[in-house]
Task: structure prediction
Amino acid sequence: MHHVTRRQLLTGLSAALVLAACAPAPTAAPTASAAKPTTTPVAAAATEIELYFPVAVGGPIAKIMDGYMERFNAVNPGIKAKAVFAGGYPDVLTKIQTTVQGGGKPPAVAVLLSTDLFTLLDADLIENLDPYLQKAGDAYVNDFFPAFMLNSKDDKGKVWGIPFQRSTPVMYYNKAQFKEVGLDPNNPPKNWTELADAAKKLTKPNGERWGLQIPSDGFPYWIFQAWPISLGKNVVGTEANKVFLNTAESTESLEYFVKLIKTDKVHPEGIIPWATTPDAFVAGKASMIIHTTGSLTNILGKFPNPADVGVAFIPGKNGFGAPTGGGNLYIFKGAPQDQKDAAWKLIQFLSQPEMAAEWSRDTGYIASRKSSYDTDLMKKLIAEKPQYGIARDQLQFAQKELTSHQGAEVQKIYGNAIQAAIEGKKAPKQALDEAQVTADKLLSQFK
Amino acid sequence: MISKLRSIVLGLALLAPSVFLLGAFTVWPVLQTIINSFFRRNAATRGQPVWDGLGNFTRLFEDDQFIKVLGNTLLLVLITVPISLVLAFLIAVLLNQKIRGIGWLRSGIFYPTVLPMVSAATIWLLLYNVDFGLINSVFRDLGGSPRNFLGTSTLVLPAICVMLIWKQTGFLMVFYLAGLQGLPTDVMEAARLDGAGRLQTLRHVSLPLLRGTTVFITTIAVTGAFQTVDQLYVMTQGGPNNASNLLLFNIYETNFRFQDTGSAYAQTTILLALLLIFTIINAVVSDRRSHDAT
Amino acid sequence: MMQPRSRDKTFGTALLLVIALVWSVPLLWAIALSLRPPGAPIAIGSSWWGGGLSLASFARALSAAPFETYYRNTLIVVAGILIIQLVTVTLAGFVFARVKFPGRELLFILFLMQLLVPTAALIIPNYSTIRSMGLYDTLPAIMMPFWASAFGTFLLRQTFRTVPLDYEDAARIDGATWWQTLWHVYLPPARPALTAFAVTSISSHWNDFLWPLVVTSSVSTRTITVGLASFTQMGESGAEWGLLMAGTLLVVWPLLVLFIVFQKQFVASFVSSGLK
Result:
């Protein structure tokens, strides 16, 4: 679970760090964004609710979140919402579990990983959101990008989480280096053959420059999932006790990855650190990288000439594909009913198109709703920096992030197999077959 | 003399705080660990303990990844302890002389002791970095190709060992230094008059006299090595593919990330057993050595 | 005889100098990185010199994380552990040195057990104990398992035993109570031992990481090492290395400065605490 945190922290905080230097947290409350009618009569005493929010340090993101709470409270006089910053994702989860097991009351609402769904269900912590969604109407739920909703639903299609800070991996490429070797900077590789060919042209000997760099430490399964998805077979389906790690599609993808390293030699050997991959790209040592959308703000801020930063869909064998990532909003079962209702209001407030757009601009996450991209704010951002639109466009090819019962452990099992193959310790097929056996054994406990 | 009854009351009263605390945070936890390791308890059992006999242990020993973790742990102990000890002794001998600026040299070697492991690991994380780390930039300047220390399964454990040796040698060295300074001067003088060279004196006189110190710091180094965990959290998270994973980090991960409390208890039992085995070996060996010496 | 000896000595000193330099490189490099101007990321230019010096990384580190809270928590934890330890260790050491009663040796085994089983190995059961006590995510949770110290008890027992029994008898004849005896007769000669114990306790608990990480979850209860670790996760974004090193040095400096100032005493106390 923690390895996911690194990515999530990165997604938000890397962007936030850059922001910390240049942009103040938004304070002015656009009243238009608070248009949701509040019909509840003002109660004598305000309902107090807490939103547990995963921020490891009290930085700029915390300030932004506090600002949102103030704006919510201003338009909802009967409610007093407060954000509690409880550390990284696993810290928030542990804190809630501990409170509930100790007989205490959980917070009304929290942001946790979308892939924590089955862990939360197994511990019986969260509230089903379907009744709320029925009241809100189809227009509301259908406005979320369908790819983001996939990790919100359990194996029976019930909805338990609302997308909030969501991301996806994309490919970054150096347009100047594309020109240098005679590649069309406006026509990035679209499939495996083109990817390998471009990478060969871009690679310089002795590790001076690599054509392609894909990070593989921490949570290697995430980016890698893009390829089985592009081949039409994701490693996870709707069931919570089944994963498909050793399918022909998964194996072929891993064989391709190994070929890029061992045969084509366009990708460095060994396990590539997530942390320094954007640096290698910025320093011109890697011409193409695959990384989270959350790094875009960071990369644009540091790149010598930001106009040379190309963003593209991840090339699959003969098409595109990508997993989603990031955190959802959950309501907790153990909270009193008035708090749960207030929490739902807060969720609706935070997921308004304008708010989602603002959150995207301020943090680098993808706005979770389609209509966010019709707001002036988002239109202006994409007009100025077209790179921000790519991740959204790629969502049409996106699928569910790997999740199941014991999700974090299954993610690690798959990641270990990928790492073993990259390093040449095991043949891709053997590594994946073994991973499948281990995962099956683990998941067989859950009927 | 105080009356017998009074000493019982007084003794018990004064020991009460310590006894209560040790009971609560050492004795009871050990019992709890052993008992709980016989129960399966994870998300599948909804966090409830279910009697499972030796199930946790069989599953662990059938799991290649756990065997790898155990092997890594033993390897780390076997690599870092002897090297640190030899280095510590060597440096202590070199430091055991009167030269100007010796205090600075001593500080330069001892200072890692006072750095929190997390801080030291953060620095080494960057030192080892494949693209921009200092070590690789030196490699490149010498005409070599960069090594992905923390991203290569054959290099990552040695890299962790080097860092650990750097961190603890100064600390261990101080005990040797104190031992050397406490050696009886007449014995040393006698050895010199006998015409023994410096190295001979060290080997045949100093080293045997420092046997007690050696036993003591071996204990410190070994228990320390078994508890290696902070640097994994910062530097590798146990990866790649568990190549740098060690027992205590695995326990942490199993319990707090995978919520498999039963297995975490069983692994703790194994860790306790290893510590016990080492203590016995150390006791037996040091006992025999002291007999040899007389 | 003389010449090889002095050649030995020169060679030894040179070797020592090399070792000390190699050993110091990580710290020096961390300082160099932390002082790089923010506009000169490590990715560009030399490893050591970023084309200028700047304290900007420190300013940003201080504003990016609540270091005051971290320092305060760490100070409370370190002091809270030490003060209670000094009491429990003195009392227990006194009993094992001078108060004889049946069953004492049995209790002694209890203390031995803590020496064999390091507290760090018991995070899982201790975590469960802390939770059932309702202390999860509080500062006392970080301190409690360390309030009794077998190591300190043994250290004090050894020291108290060196106090001649006559002194105690004399005090008793004067009508002193046990605590007056302890205070006036036993504690004064034990001062060096207590100092040594304090130094080891402070430096080891300043450095504690896994336990505070596990039993706390809020920014308000976070100690400095846990705060730094969350900082390293943030540094995963890459070239915020200057920031990361500045954060590291902010964690390291208090003990490092203390060490440099009291270098001799520091080393001496480690020795006297360990050898007994």
Notes: The first strand of chain A starts at residue 47 and ends at 53. Residues 1-43 of chain A have pLDDT under 50 and may be disordered. Chain A touches chain C at residues 5-6, 9-10, 13-14, 17, 20-21, 56-59, 84-88, 91-92, 94-95, 98, 101-102, 274-280, 282-283, 285, 295, 298, 302 (CB under 8 Å). The radius of gyration of chain A is 22 Å.
